[in-house]
User: Which sequence fits this backbone?
């Protein structure tokens, strides 16, 4: 907790740590893991849906997600679904249908990468900008906030001063990773890793990690 407190003091030296709402967001490969994360204190969980997610072998059916959402809400937790691959032209219509289906399950937000989603005819669901968007500057953070993203996941390699600058320049909720196993500082290296292993570049091979975010 001392390390997290230091982060918040750097984000805004004029306020105390207790005035911030700190949330712990946990990944979950499936609904069972999501339930355990919530029971052990996670404020929110992000989980892959049945398609267009960047985590390899981490997809879940609409039925599983629909059953998970009321469980999470019963404990005051939120469910975010990743839809964070770059979409090809022939994937836009299926992605639009999936977004509508996910909205109907009651999920709290979608984590996305492709800006083309903003042009689709989708229901009023909250959108979060994925770490795949490579958000490392104030200008990019402000742009994403201006076009409607309510939460932005910063690039992992930012230092505390850079995080603070972005935090002070935008009204969007800032999210950043506090623990990771396989993820490396230079995101482009994932492309080389995945090509070597014969996996599509838009499908991430990620181990478990945790993130936290602040308003």
Assistant:
């Amino acid at each position: 907790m001392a390390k997290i407190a230091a982060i918040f003091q750097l984000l805004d030296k004029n306020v105390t740590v207790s005035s911030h709402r700190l949330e712990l967001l946990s990944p979950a490969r499936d609904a069972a893991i999501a339930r355990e994360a919530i029971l052990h204190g996670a404020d929110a969980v992000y989980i892959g849906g049945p398609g267009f997610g960047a985590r390899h072998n981490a997809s879940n059916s609409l039925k599983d997600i629909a059953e998970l959402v009321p469980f999470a809400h019963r404990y005051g937790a939120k469910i975010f679904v990743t839809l964070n691959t770059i979409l090809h032209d022939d994937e836009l219509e299926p992605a639009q249908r999936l977004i509508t289906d996910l909205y109907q399950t009651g999920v709290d937000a979608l984590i996305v990468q492709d800006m083309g989603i903003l042009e689709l005819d989708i229901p009023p669901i909250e959108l979060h900008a994925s770490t795949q968007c490579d958000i490392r500057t104030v200008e990019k953070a402000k742009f994403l906030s201006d076009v409607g993203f309510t939460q932005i996941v910063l690039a992992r390699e930012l230092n505390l001063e850079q995080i603070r600058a972005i935090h002070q320049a935008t009204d969007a909720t800032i999210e950043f990773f506090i623990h990771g196993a396989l993820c490396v500082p230079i995101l482009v290296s994932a492309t080389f890793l995945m090509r070597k292993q014969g996996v599509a570049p838009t499908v991430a091979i990620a181990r478990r990690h945790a993130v936290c975010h602040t308003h």
Remarks:
- The chain is about 35% helix and 20% strand.
- Helices lie at 2-11, 31-39, 62-74, 92-105, 138-146, 160-169, 189-196.
- The chain has one domain: 22-214.
- The longest strand covers residues 22-28.
